[in-house]
């Protein structure tokens, strides 16, 4: 059975991620692994298992809260299999260890702060860990309490990595949605040439992935105060105008991913994605 991994800290943010993951699993058939990482101090969980006299009070509290959470899930979603994991260490390092040892369709994480992306990518270590994870990441902002997938957007520069990203998202969202392809015309290409590229690209998506409900948007970079808006700003405006439910991003270093997730860009632009965002896993490249 395919699985989803959900990091749990018993906050409202992880509660939203759990609910969203449950709704995905209810429709797509995954089981859930709920992982609580004791990140404040090293080895408190291991010590508690090896020597009861060293048991930190946070360990039984977390075990109790996890048991209650599993009971709530089982009552609301009786068909979903739920497993629990506990470990010590840095949150992102532990996630990487777990995903290296087990295969998951995605890690489903709650995000917090003024910007969901900023919450994930603060600090170079965190950024590099998520950038290099072998498992897709689905970031769920606090506002996303209900699974909506009527319109799912994929940033499109006509690269094979984008088809790979889409194929990785299908186990979560299946095929009953409208796929909106977004291309930011940063190089001011002729529209007819981009239309031609889209025709070829849509044929590939239909033939290789079996998705048929596809539309596309060519977004020019608007001028503000005689300066072109950034790609991040252009994408943000499309997401709002088109009422997109989920955003899919590749992690190719040559893709818009870098610009959208560099911490300084996020802070400068207050780039605030208020919809679930799927980051495809990194595909190793030669050289």
Automatic annotation (TrEMBL):
<dbReference type="InterPro" id="IPR006015">
    <property type="entry name" value="Universal_stress_UspA"/>
</dbReference>
<feature type="domain" description="UspA">
    <location>
        <begin position="2"/>
        <end position="141"/>
    </location>
</feature>
<comment type="similarity">
    <text>Belongs to the universal stress protein A family.</text>
</comment>
<dbReference type="InterPro" id="IPR006016">
    <property type="entry name" value="UspA"/>
</dbReference>
<protein>
    <submittedName>
        <fullName>Universal stress protein</fullName>
    </submittedName>
</protein>
<dbReference type="Pfam" id="PF00582">
    <property type="entry name" value="Usp"/>
</dbReference>
